Amino acid sequence: MVDAFLKYLQYQKRYSPQTIQSYRTDLSQFEAFLNQEFDGTPSQEANYGLVRSWIVRLVEQNLDSLSVNRKIACLRSYYKFLIREALINQDPMTKIKILKTKKKLPNFVNEQDTTRLLDQVQFDLTHEGLRDKLILELLYGTGMRLAELISLKEQNINLRDRTLKVLGKRNKERVIPFSVQLVTIIEDYLQVRNREIEKQNHGRLLVTQTGDELYPMLVNRTVKKYMKLFTSVEKKSPHVLRHTYATHLLNKGAEINAVKDLLGHSSLAATQVYTHNSMEKLKKVFDQAHPKA
Predict the structure, then answer these.
(1) Cβ-proximal residues to 271 (8 Å cutoff; 6+ apart), any chain
(2) By C-alpha distance, which of 241, 244, 152 is closest to 204?
(3) What is the pLDDT along the chain (293 residues), one digit of tens a residue?
(4) How far is residue 48's CA from residue 43's CA, in Å, rounded to a whole number?
(5) CA gap 121, 223 in Å, rounded
(6) Is 254 exposed, middle or buried (0-12, 13-18, 19+ CB in 10 A)?
(7) C-beta separation of 245 from 138 below 8 A
(8) Residues marked as catalytic
(9) Which of 95, 72, 96, 92 is closest to 83 using CA atoms?
C-alpha cells in the first residue's frame, strides 16, 4: 500500500523527491512502531487508538512539534488515499489534531554578511569552483528552492532577457528575473563546464564533476561550507538563502504580492512570515528617529 501511495504522490500529485522521501521515512517509522508495539498490525488496518499511541510516543521522545505535525500530515494523506482507492472504510485520522507550535521567524543572513559571502570568497576558476559560486548566486539571486536549483535546465535560462524558468511545487512553472551580474557568472560557468566536463543528456545547468545531475547533499554541503565563513546564523542551508532573498526584497520596499509570485507561493499567508523581519527593522527605525519613541 505504501509503495502505491508514494507512486501516487510522485506521478499524480507531482510532489518533490524530497517530500516523497520524507513521507517514505515517516511511514516506515510508523510501520516499525506497529510491528514492535502491536504485533505487526498493517498500517492500513490501524485505528485512531494506534495512530494516537504513535503520536504520544513521538512527543515523549521530545520530537519537536513541527516534525510531529509533518508526520500527522503524512498519515492524513496516506489514509485519504486508501479511502479514495476503497481500501479502507474509515479514516483513523478524523479525530487527530495537530500540535500547537510556536511561530518561528525564518532565519536569514543580514545584508552585510550576504555581500561578504558573495563578493569576498576567491573561488577557483575550475568547474567545481565556478559551480559553487553559481549555486550561491542562484539561490540568493532568485530565491529558488533546492529542488528547483537541482532540476534547472540550461534551455530554461534566457541570458538576453535575464530570466529563468523553474518547475516548482505541484509542477507549477514560474519565471524569475535575475541581475546583470548573474549573466556573467552563468556564462563563465558554462564556458568552463563545457570545456572540462563530459556532456550528459539530462540538460541540467549544474552538474557534478562526472557530468551527472546534482544531488541535495552536495548542494547543502556547498552552501554550509561557505556560509559558515561569513555568518553566525544557526541554520546554514539553501532554504536560508531563499529566506534571505525574500527578506531583503521586502526590506528594500518590494510589494509583498510581487515577492509571493517570485517565491512561487500559492497563498499570501506563506509570504507574510517575512514581513515580521521587515517590521522589526521598521520598529528600530521608529525607535531611533521618532521624537516620542
Answers:
(1) 246, 256, 259, 260, 263, 265
(2) 152
(3) 899 999 999 988 888 888 899 999 999 999 999 999 999 999 999 999 999 999 999 999 999 898 999 999 999 999 999 999 999 999 999 999 999 876 667 789 999 999 999 999 999 999 999 999 999 999 999 999 999 999 999 999 999 999 999 988 878 899 999 999 999 999 999 999 999 999 888 999 999 999 999 999 999 999 999 999 998 888 899 999 999 999 999 888 889 999 999 999 988 888 887 776 665 565 665 666 667 65
(4) 11
(5) 13
(6) middle
(7) no
(8) 145, 169, 239, 242, 265, 274
(9) 92
Measured CA to CA, the distance from residue 131 to residue 276 in angstroms comes to 33
Amino acid at 128: E
What domains can be seen in the chain, in order of their start residue?
2-84 (1.10.150), 111-287 (1.10.443.10)
100, amino acid identity: K
Those residues whose C-beta lies under 8 Å from the C-beta of residue 169, and which sit 6 or more positions away, are: 14, 15, 16, 145, 264, 266
Q: Which of 36, 11, 41, 10 is nearest to 23 (CA)?
A: 10
SS (H, E, C) the chain: CHHHHHHHHHHCCCCCHHHHHHHHHHHHHHHHHHHHHCCCCCHHHCCHHHHHHHHHHHHHCCCCHHHHHHHHHHHHHHHHHHHHCCCCCCCCCCCCCCCCCCCCCCCCCCHHHHHHHHHCCCCCCCHHHHHHHHHHHHHHHHCCCHHHHHHCEHHHEECCCCEEEEECHHHCEEEEECCHHHHHHHHHHHHHHHHHCCCCCCCECCECCCCCECCHHHHHHHHHHHHHHHCCCCCCCHHHHHHHHHHHHHHCCCCHHHHHHHHCCCCHHHHHCCHHHHHHHHHHHHHHHCCCC
CA distance 177 to 185: 15
